[in-house]
Write a structure and sequence with these properties.
Layout (H helix, E strand, L loop, with lengths): L5 H11 L16 H4 L12 E4 L1 H7 L6 H5 L5 E4 L11 E4 L8 E4 L2 E2 L19 E7 L16 E6 L7 E9 L3 E9 L10 E11 L8 E14 L3 E15 L4 E2 H7 L19 E18 L2 E25 L2 E26 L2 E22 L35 E21 L4 E20 L8 E21 L2 E12 L19 E13 L3 E13 L1 E4 L11 E4 L2 E15 L2 E14 L12 E11 L2 E10 L3 E3 L15 E3 L3 E13 L7 E9 L7 E5 L12 E4 L4 E9 L1
Parallel strand pairs: 4-7
Antiparallel strand pairs: 1-6, 2-3, 4-5, 6-7, 8-9, 8-36, 9-10, 10-11, 11-12, 12-14, 13-35, 14-15, 15-16, 16-17, 17-18, 18-19, 19-20, 20-21, 21-22, 22-23, 23-26, 24-25, 26-27, 27-28, 28-29, 29-32, 30-31, 32-33, 33-36, 34-35
Length: about 725
């Protein structure tokens, strides 16, 4: 058994504890593998977890970044970002090949996301300057891990805490493509008159033209977090965040467009063309609030509760085209609204005794989600009003639904619905300290999910009305164990069932009652180990996932809609992951991670799409004498792309054609210097310079293909990644 120094053991134990997530501009030296690791394991973990700390976020990624940009450094994670760091929504953020909507994203433990398919809009809520830590949890967790998509794991964000000292911290950043960011943060410090209460409040303004042509973005972010101790055993937290965003919204591009219009082609500037940026843009508002408390009741009992709400409103102008009437060219398009307001509560009660810790609680979540799309006429009625002209309408009335007739309430609507998802999860688990070194955690969760749909026009070609409700219930078992080999080395094992609530698109048929609607389920089997020392830390794991209930579309009916949505057998996922940091000395550490990943459908044996065959990252991290920086390279292996997957249970899966995306490397550089000023109004100053894609790689990621290989040049589509770009950031503390 490896013997370690008392100092190293203490450092490892501290790194596992709960720390105040303060953003300190110029802090103490970080000269060990424990403090310099870009991603780090946890000794007490029961599943693979990579922790990205606040120092890495603040010093090594552009301040414009979103959570997808930050998470990209982790093993088995890949991010496709086409407009610059945080300057547009991520197109694919995968974890072990599970694409966004197959895993949870949480903020301070609260799951959030779109209600139709549980996907996420990476720019819409929390820019990098609000994030204190990210934990990439690659597994269903324990019974107390909540969310509608424990199926693929959890990307868990944690908010920054108020500083303990009074401060004003302005941050100014300028970068490529006329990108400008101003972030202004105020901290009250601890307030003795309010029993040590503290507040952090900030405002951020970010504008950019973006890498892609005519793909501008503007975002205003307001944030407040208030911590109030009550007595000696209770803390009350209130948090509020609000975002307002406007951005142009180009899609994927063909090879022909790349060759003729340039790699940076996004949208055009000519109002007489359908690619005009004024016909393709989105306006969004999003807010997120919670009121929580944590209290120690005595006798080992603790209670925490968070009541929350969040809101999302996306008004999108899209799909423009021309329609000539009586010699007049009209530019017509679609106005799409996706809006939801969620309310929920997360209660956790625990009791600690000499044998372990018992946890139980509940999570409830309710949403109201209006969704509609109608035809508009930019030429005649502008970018919002419905087009009531029968000569230019896009969605003519259908006999099956009289409300779509000329003059009726749903004339020119493609769909118009309100859905009301409801979630209840009850759980109980026991963290049993079987010995001084072995902890075993069995648990069980009861899951209940209901979709209520009130559609005056359902999202089908037939556009019939639909009133429907469907409920799924499931009992999910969990079992994990962690064995501490010595104070700095642990091993763990997990057997757990994950779950993904049914997607709204499974109800896009004439008769959803005829569907076999089931939640997707995953059985996760994982083994891993974590080692942490001041000179070297590492984590490694192997996993096998049995996934079932893959939804697929049945043959089309007379209206051109799927006759039904079926459920296929699913897929098998397997792989291995490793991450490590070695402190070389003098403030310099060597970092690396890697993964091999495989996923195949059970019936057809086809590769599951968007699963990179491997990922890797390596580089150097430095922090000493006020200087800091990192140089990292990220590798993403190729993945399979199909023209269509209808039923993966049959040979070929229904695909006419397949292709492989190209693998690629991208390098990022960050260098900076921070210093303190004694006896001055200005306490600290920090300057940092970041270069993304430092080696100027020309990368295009295959996103979709046409069934006919002869159309590869004109119809296969790509996401083109930005060329080399720069950001210079100055911050100070007053």
């Amino acid at each position: 058994m490896c013997q370690v120094s008392a100092q190293a053991a203490k450092a490892a134990e501290v790194s596992e504890g709960t720390l105040r997530l303060e953003d300190i501009e110029v802090g103490a030296k970080r000269i060990s593998a424990l403090t310099q690791a870009p991603t780090d394991g946890k000794l007490d973990t029961i599943q693979p977890v990579s922790v990205i700390g606040i120092d890495y976020i603040n010093n090594n990624v552009a301040p414009t970044a979103d959570f997808a940009t930050i998470a990209n450094i982790s093993p088995s994670v890949s991010n496709v970002e086409t407009n610059g760091p945080g300057l547009s929504e991520s197109k694919h953020l995968t974890m072990r090949g599970f694409d966004d909507n197959s895993y949870n994203v949480t903020f301070d433990g609260i799951p959030f996301g779109d209600q139709n398919d549980f996907s996420h809009h990476t720019t819409s809520y929390f820019p990098a300057k609000l994030i204190g830590k990210i934990e990439i949890e690659r597994g269903p967790g324990t019974a107390s891990s909540i969310g509608q998509a424990t199926f693929g794991g959890t990307l868990a964000m944690f908010s920054k805490d108020p500083r303990t000292e009074l401060s004003f911290v302005p941050t100014l950043s300028a970068g490529s493509w006329n990108t400008r960011l101003g972030h202004f943060e105020f901290n009250t410090g601890l307030l003795p008159a309010l029993n040590g209460a503290s507040v952090i409040a900030s405002y951020q303004r970010m504008t950019t033209d973006g890498y892609r042509s005519n793909s501008d973005m503007k975002r205003d972010t307001y944030f407040l977090k208030y911590l109030q101790p009550v007595g000696g055993n209770t803390t009350v937290t209130f948090l509020s965040s609000y975002n307002k965003i406007h951005f142009s919204n180009p899609g994927t591009v063909t090879q022909q467009q790349i060759d003729t219009l340039g790699r940076d082609y996004g949208l055009g500037s000519n109002p007489a063309a359908a690619d005009f940026t004024g016909y393709n843009y989105q306006d969004k508002q999003a807010d997120f609030e919670y009121l929580g408390f944590e209290t120690k009741l005595g006798g080992g009992w603790e209670v925490s509760n968070k009541v929350y709400t969040y809101y999302y409103n996306n008004e999108s102008r899209e799909k423009p085209k021309t329609k000539t009437v009586a010699g007049v060219v009209n530019f017509i398009g679609s106005f799409k609204v996706n809006q939801y307001r969620n309310w929920g509560d997360y209660l956790l009660v625990s009791k600690q005794d000499e044998f372990g810790t018992f946890k139980t609680g509940a999570w409830v979540d309710y949403s109201r989600n209006p969704r509609y799309l109608y035809g508009l006429n930019y030429t005649q009625t502008g970018a919002t009003a419905i087009d009531l002209n029968p000569a230019t309408n896009q969605f003519a009335g259908v006999g099956a639904n009289p409300t779509t007739a000329l003059g009726a309430p749903n004339y020119n609507y493609s769909y118009n619905m309100t859905e009301r998802p409801k979630t209840l999860q009850l759980f109980a688990e026991y963290e049993w300290r079987a010995t001084s070194a072995l902890v075993v955690n069995p648990g069980v969760k009861y899951y209940r999910f209901t979709r209520e749909i009130d559609a005056s026009v359902n999202q089908t070609k037939a556009r019939k009305p639909l009133m429907f409700s469907h409920t799924d219930t499931k009992v999910l078992p969990y079992l994990s164990a962690n064995y501490r080999v010595d104070p700095n080395w642990s091993a763990y094992a997990q057997i757990a069932q994950g779950l993904l609530a049914p997607n709204l698109n499974q109800f896009y048929v004439d008769d959803p009652a005829a569907n076999t609607i089931k939640p997707q389920q995953s059985w996760n089997y994982q083994l891993g180990t974590v080692y942490k020392h001041e000179r070297f830390n590492a984590a490694a794991d192997v996993y096998y996932i049995d996934f079932k209930n893959y939804a697929y579309k049945g043959p089309t009916n007379s209206s051109g809609d799927p006759a039904y949505i079926g459920v296929a057998g699913g897929a098998h996922y397997s792989g291995a992951e490793i991450e490590a940091t070695y402190f070389l000395g003098g403030g310099l550490s060597l970092y690396g991670n890697g993964s091999v990943n495989d996923a195949k459908f059970k019936g057809s044996k086809l590769d599951v799409p968007t699963v990179p065959k491997s990922t890797a990252a390596f580089g150097l991290v430095y922090n000493n004498a006020g200087f800091f920086g990192s140089l990292t390279e990220k590798y993403v292996g190729s993945w399979k792309v199909y023209d269509a997957i209808t039923n993966p249970d049959v040979a070929g899966g229904g695909a006419a054609r397949s292709a492989d995306s190209s693998s690629y490397w991208l390098g990022d550089l960050s260098v900076g210097y921070g210093f303190k000023i004694d006896h001055s109004f200005v306490h600290t100053v920090k300057l940092r310079f970041q270069v993304s894609n430092i080696f100027n790689q020309k990368v295009q990621v295959l996103d979709g293909i046409d069934p006919n290989p002869a159309n590869f040049y004109t119809k296969d589509v790509f996401n083109v990644l930005p060329v080399r770009n720069y950001f210079l950031t100055l911050s100070a503390e007053f």
